[in-house]
Automatic annotation (TrEMBL):
Gene3D superfamilies: 1.25.40.80, Deoxyribodipyrimidine photolyase-related (1.10.10.1710), DNA Cyclobutane Dipyrimidine Photolyase, subunit A, domain 3 (1.10.579.10), HUPs (3.40.50.620). It comes from the Bacteria. InterPro entries: Crypto/Photolyase_FAD-like_sf (IPR036134), PhrB-like (IPR007357), Rossmann-like_a/b/a_fold (IPR014729), UV-DNA_repair_photolyase (IPR052551). This is Cryptochrome/photolyase family protein.
Length: 540
């Protein structure tokens, strides 16, 4: 049947992706409501290409729906494809969504039937996969695609690649210093505030046996009607995805994100530095800001967050070690991982420098595990989609590393489980910093440790059936056993490594009897935890 309906002529169809919810984006520059249209779509693929935690899916849908509402309130022309208006069709007893809502490109194809479009416009996506699929889609149809720079970030387009040129190694610390000098953040003239660039030495505090004491109650937001609608969508369409929605308190609009920033600066920033690395049973947030999701959705700009912290320092409300430590995470790490992501993709995705071959243990998806540190850290992710940096690096990340997990499996887990997971920031942290899958491009050494590290930084071990100091006994901590196994496996590689040689020396001091006992215990550990490629078997 020929399409007899005339298609509406449009100059630019302007795409807004789920993590591009900033009204000051370059997409709106020169936007003409008479000639252009905004376009947003909720698509299943974003919750199923890895089985997204329900908390994460609700966050994205709720934030997109709020942003769409604010655009409509401004009177801007917007097409919004909601999963709620999609038809469900029964398929082998399961409801499946119609094809228009399966993927970004199928949703686009559906919309483009109505329009005669001169070009598609969008800000550079945060995910290489999305960029490629849009590029291919447009190339196949000879549809011009205009990619705009992402003005959310502090680094200017091209600044990171210019900095990389001629350097043998790319280390966050030097990139961070360059950005501080260029922006004047925490600078006195050309010198760093306080005389040092980095106050990490003051940021390794642990709690006494009494724990953190009474903490301010976390600022959690009550779900309004729009967020409730997102909760129902996820409950209806993604019942088998991991995570739960017993509570949901994430900021889903700019006004809430600003409230959370204010709360953090007033209540948590002063002690953020000192207890940045500490962990405590049933205390998921401690002094961490919980701002990553709002930042990654672009409800907040990194510069405004940094300026709020800098102002607290200038007003004497927070000490320098806390303020510098916090600003380094955002100005240093966050900008660094983004630069590295775009300079190393797509190769980074498939790197496996340590030839890690094991399946990720199944308990990562369920939290059902007898190691207390992991049970706590994973249950918290299932409940809230959150873990702070040290839980991610030195509990879930460390165990996956010592288990010698296939990097793409642990990458999929992190991408699926955390509310702030967008690939440009997740992948470098997982494959680079936590798993050393790139052989040292991002981190100067693998972050490996025995259970003693967890014992020092938390109270998890106190209630655990295992003993962090023991490697080969019946009570041996699996971290400690697998630490020695890891070193033995990679002995040749790390024997002369400047930062690991000492650890290899300790390994060499083990006599044959101890080595055999550790190897036997390692075998027990591997048999005790099932690792069946759970994701492949449970893919929704
Ligand atoms: P805070 O501790 O309050 O820190 C302040 C802010 O600094 C964060 O909100 C975040 O925007 C930024 N930040 C801190 N560390 C990093 C870092 N290493 N890289 C980039 N930004 C940083 N962060 C994500 O945003 N998304 C992810 O998917 C993600 N995956 C991670 C996976 C692993 C294995 C590791 C080790 C880290 C990961 N991080 C990720 C970084 C960091 O753990 C989170 O940003 C932080 O825990 C978020 O909690 P918060 O907002 O309370 O952070
Ligand atoms: Fe984790 Fe080992 Fe401590 Fe148990 S003893 S909580 S497994 S580090």
């Amino acid at each position: 049947m020929p399409n007899t309906q005339a298609r509406q002529a449009i100059r630019h169809l302007c795409l807004i992706l789920g993590d591009q919810l900033n009204r000051d984006s370059l997409l709106f520059e020169g936007f003409d409501p008479q000639k252009d249209r905004l376009w947003m779509a909720e698509v299943m693929e974003e919750s199923t290409h890895v089985p997204s935690n329900k908390q994460r899916s609700v966050l994205f849908l709720a934030a997109m729906r709020h942003f769409a509402q604010s655009l409509r309130d401004e009177g801007l022309p917007l097409d919004y494809l909601s999963l709620d208006t999609s038809d469900l069709s029964p398929n082998e007893g399961k409801a499946t969504i119609n094809s228009a809502h399966q993927s970004l490109t199928s949703a686009l194809a559906h919309s483009l039937q109505q329009y005669q479009v001169q070009s598609l416009k969008l800000v550079l996506p945060g995910d290489y996969r999305v960029l490629q699929s849009l590029k291919h889609y447009c190339a196949d149809r000879q549809l011009p695609l205009e990619l705009l720079a992402d003005n959310h970030f502090i680094a200017k387009p091209g600044e990171f690649s210019a900095w990389q040129k001629g350097k043998k190694q790319w280390r966050m610390e030097y990139w961070y210093r360059q950005l501080r000098k260029r922006t004047g953040i925490l600078m006195r003239g050309d010198q760093p505030e306080g005389g040092d660039w980095n106050y990490d030495k003051d940021n390794r505090g642990t709690f006494s046996s009494q724990g953190p004491g009474l903490l301010d109650e976390a600022l959690l937001f009550v779900a309004d009607e729009i967020t409730q609608s997102a909760i129902s969508t996820v409950t209806r369409l993604l019942p088998d995805n991991p995570g739960n929605l017993m509570s949901f308190g994430w900021p889903v609009k700019r006004q809430q994100a600003l409230q959370l920033l204010e709360f953090f600066i007033a209540k948590q920033l002063p002690l953020f530095g000192e207890y940045q690395d500490a962990m405590w049973t049933n205390e998921p947030w401690l002094y961490h800001s919980r701002l990553s999701a709002a930042l990654n959705l672009k409800l907040l700009s990194p510069l405004e967050v940094i300026q709020a912290a800098e102002q607290a320092y200038a007003q004497g409300k927070a000490p320098l070690n806390a303020v510098e430590g916090f600003i380094r995470q955002i100005l240093g790490w966050r900008e660094f991982v983004r630069g590295l992501y775009w300079s190393l993709m797509p190769d980074w995705h498939s790197m496996n420098a340590l030839d890690a071959r094991h399946n990720l243990p199944d308990f990562y998806w369920t939290g059902q595990v007898d190691m207390r540190c992991l049970a706590q850290s994973i249950q918290q992710v299932l409940d809230h989609g959150y873990g702070h940096h040290i839980q991610r690096l030195m509990v879930t990340g460390l165990f996956a590393q010592l288990w010698q997990t296939q990097p793409h499996q642990i990458h999929a887990w992190y991408l699926a489980m955390y509310v702030d997971a967008v690939e440009w920031v997740e992948l470098p942290n997982v494959l680079g910093m936590s798993q050393y899958a790139d052989g040292g491009i991002m981190a100067s050494k693998p972050y490996i440790a025995t259970g003693r590290y967890v014992a020092k930084m938390s109270n998890y071990c106190a209630g655990c059936r295992y003993k962090p100091d023991e490697a080969e006994t019946d009570n041996a901590c699996p971290f400690t056993t697998l630490y020695w196994e890891f070193l033995a496996t990679h002995r040749a590689r790390f024997a002369n490594h400047p930062r690991l040689a000492l650890q290899v020396k300790h390994l060499d001091n083990h006599n044959a009897e101890k080595r055999a006992a550790i190897a036997k215990r390692a075998q027990w550990v591997r048999e005790h935890y099932s690792a069946t490629n759970y994701l492949a078997n449970h893919q929704t």
